[in-house]
Amino acid sequence: MRKKIIxxxxxxxxxxxxxxxxxxxxxxxxEKGHFVTRFDAAFMNVGGCHACETCYQTGEPCSFHDDFNRxxxxxxxxxxxxxxxxxxxxxxxxxxxxxxxKLFSFVVGGKDIAGKECALLACCEEEDMSVMDGVRIPIExxxxxxxxKMVGEVLIPGVLHIGDIDKTEGCKKAAALAEKI
Length: 181
Ligand SMILES: Cc1cc2nc3c(=O)[nH]c(=O)nc-3n(C[C@H](O)[C@H](O)[C@H](O)COP(=O)(O)O)c2cc1C
Fold this sequence. Notes:
Layout: E1 4-9, H1 17-31, E2 35-40, H2 68-77, E3 80-86, H3 94-101, H4 104-108, E4 117-123, H5 133-145, E5 149-156, H6 170-180
Parallel strand pairs: 1-2, 1-3, 3-4, 4-5
Helix pairs in contact: 1-6
The protein binds flavin mononucleotide.
């Protein structure tokens, strides 16, 4: 089945490690015939959730009219939602966290987003896999709350500088994940 996949990235490094994972994933997904839409949150204007709970009341997902309103329709349409990011301070980078926080608009706006697939691509400098917990656990719990099925995670530790990812199996694993979808 040809699926609609949305990929949301969180790194500001265009040639960086998580973008390399993202590119490998997208290339394999497109080769499989899936339709991929990509949003690079670090190069968009998405502010934090104001918790105003007026989502969709103006006709727009977020009443504060930022770029989340471009991302939201693609999420609603998607079969699969993929998040790709580095670990920042044992957690999710602010750029993509703002997008994740604004997923709340679907809850407030009464949108049915259940039944999607979700996947995670992530990397970090340290070798200790527990460093990934600050990214992995929130994504897994967010997916569970949204009734999304986690279909795969590619978590690559030990990469700091641009290009370090090439010394790992990361891109191969990201492509293999796309094969599974
Ligand atoms: C602001 C900032 C915070 C970071 N915090 C962590 C961290 O807590 N743990 C870790 O292992 N790496 C940390 N890193 C390193 C990045 O996760 C690592 O360099 C990663 O490969 C960057 O991915 P990118 O090239 O896709 O941006 C941090 C990097 C930055 C810029």
